[in-house]
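Re: the multi-chain job from yesterday

Posting the exact lines I submitted so nobody has to dig through the queue logs.
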Amino acid sequence: MLRTSFIRKNRKKVLFGLSKRKFHKIHLIDEILILDQKKKKVQYILNKISEKENLISKKISHLILKRGNSLQINSLKEESIFFKKKKKDLNIEFKNIVQNLEEKLNQIPNIPDEKIKEKNTEDAVWSPNNRTTTKTIEEALPHWELSKKFHLFSSDLGTKICRSGFSVYLGKVAKLQRSLIQYFLDQNIRASYLEYSLPYLINEMSVYATGQIPDKEDQMYFIEKDNLYLLPTGEVPLMNCFRDNLFTYKDLPVRATTYTSCFRRESGSYGSKVRGINRLHQFEKVEIIQITTPDTSYYYLDEMISHIKKILRSLEFPFRLIRLSGTDLGFSSAMTYDFEVYSIGQKKWLEVSSVSNCTNFQSNRLHLRYKTMTGEIDLCHTLNGSALALPRIMAALLENNQTKNQINIPKVLIPYTGFDYIK
RNA sequence: GGAGAGAUGGCCGAGAGGCUUAAGGCGCACGCUUGGAAAGCGUGUUCACAAAAAAAGUGUCAAGGGUUCGAAUCCCUUUCUCUCCGCCA
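And the result, structure tokens for all chains:
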């Protein structure tokens, strides 16, 4: 959520930023500013009335203690009742304004960074080791064909016990998945991220604070009986661990990682996109987050990117990095990079990580603040990234390491799996 | 799920309708003292709100309502914590 004070001081900047997103409800900005003015006015009057009420109470108190005359006391009481009635009506008005203001503010996404353009040109894509993508395997099979050949996973079983869009991993692939999770966590911990093991059910406040409500409400599974959501990403419970924290500048950056399953309804996704394990309702993901000071957030964004690059290189993936354009940017993000790995069997790039700087957009709702060296209080910046999302990494790993008779395991994983091929 | 007891500042802890502007302690910061440190003494120390820097103001004792001229204190609702019973990996 943007701060109204920011919108007031940077109206043009906000409008320009929103235009890069092709955000159409621009009229909201001026409506917000008008409501904000109204709110201040009403709040000021309410304050003055409260001040008067407090003074009267004190006078009464003194009179009672000094055994003052009851006529005087009664007239003071009547005066106070008069103000009280006035306040009641104003209070209703005030609450309406606040609610209205919040509803409008909730619809405004974060302002993209200055570097972000509305549409991407070639320079937004960066392929550090493009030549490896030219590596070809004769008759490379997509992972669903490989699965038939080597008994890797079963979508039928997923459908049998749940519904379509759920998958069951078998034998060595099940262990390979555990190994990948363990490997990613180890890499993150080594890079000084603290591991958290978290609940998969989250309350409304948490979902609201990180910005999934109202933006992605329909993407989430909701348990009506207990008023809880299934987490769409580990970012939500992880970030919310820090909700309402007031840090000192010495505490920052906070670095945390978690492995969770993620649940997404993915309504409206059909066809080739959901083939095999490319897109599932439940998938495994290892997430990293950081909470930083405003002046260091882009430095740490770069650092997260090199961290993920390192992991992808160690697994010998051909990958590319894309800086998202304004129109592709997520609701809370000011800058996002997507990592895509090349999957030889499908002959296409698969998104395996999304790394974002949400600047102070999430911090505002999460009340993540810190004290500067001079003792001032300011909002933190938040960053999040996948390190990494499992099913697509798995798909690409299986496809890229296939030979005619077996699937080879990348070297760094063998200590985790205990085997070096699947056949 | 049933029965009871609780929730006060960074932490501990008093307060039970108006002399609370939340006692006292710990911690922290600064100062005095010292050759330096410890001890001692002094000062300060929640957060939020606006054109809000200073002075003043308003709100803030788990959250939201209510009673009252006046609520940390009384009433209602909700959330959370603890103890006991029940169920249970």
